[in-house]
Design brief:
Two copies of one chain form a homodimer. Chain A is mainly alpha-helical. Chain A is about 70% helix and about 5% strand. In chain A, a hairpin with a 2-residue loop joins β1 and β2. Chain A starts with a helix and ends in an 8-residue tail after the last helix. Chains A, B: GO terms for molecular function: DNA binding; DNA-binding transcription factor activity.
């Protein structure tokens, strides 16, 4: 198909598609004349993925690029491809000024990982995020949430069990990689949206006007 | 305290603090001379919150501004303040080109909300996110995940139950608002980090090198 049809079928404007081509997010089409290219179904599919990562998962273009590189690197073992994606989507900067508070949170995370029996690298980006988030919650006087880490971890394991069942239904490494990457990133968007709805419902019941269908 | 001490105690560089002041994220200090201001503990606390929202929750500055406005609007009922925050952190653009697929997903979400008995507005931003995410997953051939919405919703309700217990331990509306806002946003960061760790562990066991402590 030509770029106009690619745009029509994906709902993405032509200038945006050209931007993704320039940035290397979308692989080039096959040139049929010096200034015309032909695109395939795989381009449409990739375009949908790019849109989902930018618009729904709200990833910056630079992170989308890293995710797609991890996605495409067939020569890397699957476990490492997944690791690349994790690093691209996880904030892992130290943001806490207080080293002592960070040390306390780090010990708490270490113990949690041990209790859960999680096989994770001690320098996994999500470890840093977890330590910093616990420290921030505590610095902001919200200790109560950080007292329930095990209950949170247990609920989270239910997600990964569901996802494991979905992923292992695929046979090819490429299908598995695709499913893991999409499931990881869009799964987070899905969980966050469900959580906001459950919260809104609770807030409406406890704090809202008498009838929740008002307004 | 002076701005230098505020910077030292928060770990935030002075130019960044001045940027937050200019953007109206941080309220001005009390002027003690034409070009010197005094800051209080509440400034330090607000600065920590801003950093957590930007660095950990990865919110853009514009969204942080809306969140803080919701946070500060004591004159609005609590339920509406929470709604403001939800809108600020939820992507709710339609990104799907396919109206038919969107209609199917919308019906699925409507039925889910009914089954869960959630009291939510039909135009809640998270409803749009959910519909678009389900449509995107399906368009990308990842139907298996969207087949487990109820299991996801059930796990998510465990989070909100935990958070409800934390929130209702406060007496003052302002404390409740603060706890809800921080818990909503940083709670999501916490859940996302835990989920990545659980995933990494699963990936290491199933796909990684013989010993997960390698590398």
């Amino acid at each position: 198909m030509r770029i106009a049809e690619l745009s029509r079928r994906s709902g993405v404007p032509v200038p945006t598609i050209k931007y993704y081509l320039r940035e290397g997010l979308l692989p080039p089409g096959e040139l049929t004349s010096p200034n015309q290219a032909r695109y395939e179904e795989r381009h449409l599919r990739r375009l949908r993925l790019i849109r989902a990562l930018i618009e729904l998962a709200q990833l910056p273009v630079a992170s989308v690029k890293v995710v797609l590189e991890g996605f495409d690197s067939d020569d890397l073992p699957l476990h490492e491809r997944i690791g690349t994606v994790h690093r691209a989507i996880t904030p892992h900067r130290q943001v806490t000024g207080d080293d002592e508070m960070r040390a306390v949170a780090a010990a708490q995370v270490r113990e949690l990982v041990e209790r859960r029996g999680w096989a994770v690298q001690p320098d996994a980006p999500a470890i840093t995020t977890l330590i910093e988030t616990i420290t921030a919650l505590r610095a902001l006087g919200q200790d109560r949430l950080t007292g329930h880490l095990d209950a949170y971890a247990e609920a989270v394991e239910r997600f990964t069990d569901l996802e494991l069942a979905a992923v292992t239904s695929y046979a090819e490494p490429d299908q598995i990689a695709e499913s893991v990457v999409i499931g990881t990133i869009l799964g987070e968007t899905l969980i966050a949206a469900l959580r906001l709805l459950a919260q809104e419902s609770l807030s409406a019941r406890l704090l809202g006007p008498a009838s929740a269908s008002d307004g």
